[in-house]
Amino acid sequence: MNDRVVVITGGSRGIGRATALAAAARGFKVVVGYASNAEAAQETVSAIEASNGRAIAVKCDVGDEADIIALFEAADKFGTLGALVNNAGIVGPTARVDEMSAERIQRMMAVNVTGSILCAREAVKRLSTRHGGPGGVIINLSSVAAKLGSPNTYVDYAASKGAIDSFTIGLGHEVAGEGIRVAAIRPGLIDTEIHASGGDPDRAHRLSGHVPMQRVGRAEEIANAVVWLMSDEASYVTSAIIDVSGGR
Ligand code: NAP
Fold first, then answer.
1. Which stretches make up the Ketoreductase domain (predicted)?
2. Does the Cβ of 44 fall within 6 Å of ligand 1?
3. pTM score > 0.85 for this model?
4. Which residues of 149-178 are buried (b: 16+ CB within 10 A; e: fewer)?
5. Which residues pair with 85 in a beta bridge?
6. Rounded distance, CA 24 to CA 92, Å?
7. Does the beta carbon of 7 sit less than 6 angstroms from any atom of ligand 1?
8. Is 79 exposed, middle or buried, given 0-12, 13-18 or 19+ CB atoms closer than 10 A?
9. I want to staple 79 with a disulfide (CB 3.0 to 4.6 A). Which of 5, 88, 125, 193 is the partner?
10. Ligand 1: does its nearest atom lie under 6 Å from the Cβ of 89?
11. Rounded distance from Cα 129 to ligand 1 centre (Å)
12. Containing domain of residue 142, as a range?
């Protein structure tokens, strides 16, 4: 896998950024996808280059198919694809289902579900031995919300992550004989800006007392699990979904 390219959607901040740094440290050339924060994406690229790694930043809203196709074309120019990390994801403001607009729900599904499936489509076209590819790995970011359902917070988000779990199982089986492993991580409460983006910056810390380990997680603790799944140490792991959640 050394010298192969990994595409990380939402690699500019949070878990994606930590995964970009960890993957670069393991020899991957990193395509750092981002939605709008070019400065954060460039900072991630600079941090990788400062450690003698290789990375490029590519603007890609995963809610837009044309952006996804352009992201993978940029990756093709950078090198041979070895892995995809479907990390980009959004939450919404705290709301009950009977308060949600159709636009909110459609955007949630477009980014978290359709975007991940379309990115995986582009990755499978390049990785699958059925298409003459070299094989590789696809890692999806789910959430423990898929199991908890997130009532009175964001059931639409939880449902989008439930879809990611089913997608991980099904795609893993579909391409298991074609050199591709597929797995997902279900993070628990991780200290990133996603909570502020949902209008509740203190959410993770406020709920940390409900975590069996009594603390929030760090983005690096998710990244470590992702790069392990990407490595040959996980060579017999596919269609697997791993909780990294302090027991939550
Ligand atoms: P974050 O800190 O909010 O960072 C989000 C990243 O995704 C940024 O790089 C952002 O790019 C990018 N992004 C947002 N919307 C996008 C779009 N439409 N297209 C492409 N990229 C987009 O999030 P995080 O906490 O690291 O979460 C990463 C993943 O882990 C998500 O799938 C999330 O659901 C999952 N997760 C997180 C937690 C947690 O507690 N943090 C728990 C469970 C699961 P810009 O910088 O350009 O805005």
1. 4-210
2. no
3. yes
4. ebeebbbbbbbbbbbbbebbbebbeebeee
5. 8, 139
6. 31
7. no
8. middle
9. 5
10. yes
11. 31
12. 5-244
Question: Per-residue pLDDT tens for 164-199?
Answer: 999 999 999 999 999 999 999 999 999 999 999 999
- Residue to substitute in 90, 141, 194 for testing ligand 1 pocket (most ligand atoms within 8 angstroms of CB): 194
157 in active site: yes
* Residue 45 backbone phi and psi in degrees, to 5: -60, -45
pLDDT at 159 over 80: yes
Angle in degrees, CA 48, 114, 36, rounded to 5:
40
Radius of gyration of the chain (CA): 17
Cα-to-centroid distance, 193 and ligand 1 (Å)? 8
Instruction: Give me the number of domains the chain comprises.
Output: 1
pLDDT band at 2 (very low <50, low <70, confident <90, very high): low
- Rounded to whole angstroms, the Cα distance separating 27 from 23 reads 7
Over residues 49-81, the pLDDT tens digits come to 999 999 999 999 999 999 999 999 999 999 999
Q: What is the pLDDT of residue 103?
A: 98
Look at residue 1 in the predicted model and tell me its pLDDT. 58
Q: Whose CA is nearest to atom 1 of ligand 1?
A: 194
